[in-house]
Amino acid sequence: MLGEELMGDSANMVLVGFAIGSILGLVSVVCFLLGRLSRDGIISFPPRKATDHPAETAKDAENGAVAGIAADDATQASDAGAATVASGSTPNATDADIPAAPLYDEPRDIEELSRRLAEADNPLRELRTLTRDTLAQERAADDDPTAPHPDAFSLYLARGLQEAGIDDPGAHIPDFEVVLPYRTKSFFLRTTKRRIPEREALRVIALEGALNRALFAWKGLDHTATLEECYAFNQGLASTITAQLGTKPIKQASMLDVAGEWGVRQTFSAGIESLRLPLRLSVRFRVNLMGGDIAIETPYRDALCQPHSVYSEELDRIIPATSQMRDQMATDYALRLTLLLAAHAFRSSRRLCHAFVAVVDKSPRGRRCLVSADISREALREHDLSKPFDARELCRELGVDFRIEEDRLCAVEQGFVPEAERFCPASRYDNVDLSSRILPDFEASLLGTKFVHDLGINEDAHRSQVAEAVARQLGGTTLGDVRRILDLTQNDRDATVREAGERCAQAIIDGRLDDKDSLAFVDEFVNGGALSRATAIALDQVTSGKSADAIETLTDVLAPVDALDTYSDGNGVVWREFTSYVSRALYNRLLAKEGEKVCLVPDAYFAAQLLMASALIDSGRQEEALGFARRAQDLCPFDVSGTLRAARCFELDHDFEAAANELIQQLEYAFDPQSVGVCYYRLAFLEWKLGEADVADACYQKAVMSHSACSMAAQIELMSLRVENSSDGVAAEDVEETLRRANIPLAPTESVVEVLVEAAQGATDAEVFPVARGFATLLSALSGDDVMHGVANSMENEPDR
Question: Could you tell me the pTM of the whole model?
């Protein structure tokens, strides 16, 4: 069926907790989509004319369709009736009465065109050439009956591109590349510049719309379709976008739906990326599953993005669309899109009861809300959106707030704020390190701990809390402030708090600290210890090339700490450093031993180990440096910094194999693009030194593909390697197999990725958003997937308190 051909690619979409129904549903929906459903249910297209059709096909004959052009020898056919139908003449017509049949090019395969444009270096130039050539061919064919006309699909595309301004001398179109998202296989034009003026962005969206309309017509119509049918088809498609969700009614609300916050966000985002719409869809959404609410904002696609020509069924021809007609199209599309998004939200989870949707127009003139809706599940489930309906009437019935003047949407007050407490509870961002929450059993298994505070990474969390509380009570006399500081800190359970209180009190007495400067007081209280001060000094000395001074500075401060085994493991206690919530959860799941208690070392202590290793390496004392590098590896096993210094120690001693082994072991746990990229980059150089050119080539390619800070350097060195070896290198499809043969992990490894996905779900469902955001952002970067990007963007930032 036509609708099934159009939407066939989307039918295979399978996602977590998500299955969109048949995209266009039953035959009646398809018929309506074509805009040709008569009262008796029969599809009626405008009569085909000899000037409309390139040829009759077997499919036409089987369906009883009438070809619009006769073959050159039609009058010589033995079947007079067939000749009569083919030519459109009467039985008494003579050869002289029959006009010469126009010639047509073979139909252009729009799908093949999409693939070619996706590979083109300059798709804009190719589209301009296509537009000019096709329109010039049409003009020539109008003047010369012997010249062939372009096929209907090419002409439909060329007219659409021309109307979108592709050849407008007064308009600037930014460079773009053609992307074919695998879920829809439709056109997405990605501009090479991240920020472009609003007018240019709308023009790109209009071009994208013209391309997609041509693609939809190609997939949804018989390839002998006329130009008029292409227009009629897409007009019908625009008025039935809600039919994509299928004919099954929206289910009643239920708290038994197993998908949590993570699953619902994935499902909703996947559906957004899978909808096939004539105009680009982008949304910003927030979810509060416990409250049963979802907030959605989507940009308004105004008249500039709408087609400039339409098919008139009354006149049976294509006519220019007036500005009022385009405003009407934009209005109707915005209202239908509002209903589509609400219905999709309710299909994403039965726990969602209210969908708040806003259609927003953002321009240099400012931001305007044009449609604001609070649609309830119970109200919407009464309506079958797969059938024809009046969008304005239904929206009014559902209480959607919109205002129309001369078929144009006007500004209304937006009835909700996506960042409001209703959608984004502030409790999601409660302090992780100081939390007393106990996780549910399932989420605890995914995060590797029963307690939220065991996901903490900030050693100074309690000290910072006390510092802010004390600062709020300062401002009196110096003596009073000193007494107040000591009273509030002397009996604290944390020795670092007691020490900070005494230190700050003494600094105020000495005049080194102004007790009226709250920010300075908090900074001194939290970071003013001897270890922090010494580390800051040593950093300046190392960067200034004064390695010997740095070694002396750090030795003086580390010696008394290590002499007391302050941060040594033992008695079921281990001391660790974590640079992110992701690394903490990975440690809990992959490395933590049952029953052990993890305590956090000060950031300055970990930094001191790295600085000491660097200073000793610069001083040529690799053996001593290796000890500090090993200490850093033990403290922070998921951070690559210690491993890079250890590998450098071996490299300077010309033990390239040992250096390579350090990096190979680190790749077992590398999880973010930067650490993955730098490990492969350094390993490539070492493998090159070891004479393993193919392995080095494969490692360089992995570094390039990591999109890390060293990707460009890796690309340059890869070219040098290939020039040196007079080789084309390892084929891209052989990279992973080359690494497997060399026993080099493919980072991030399957075990690491499994934990990343599970921990992301656990943190999101448990609403521990400082942790959840880190995982979602990382998974978005690693996968490059639009669905995961949508999930990451759906997580609000920490609210102001």
Answer: 0.83
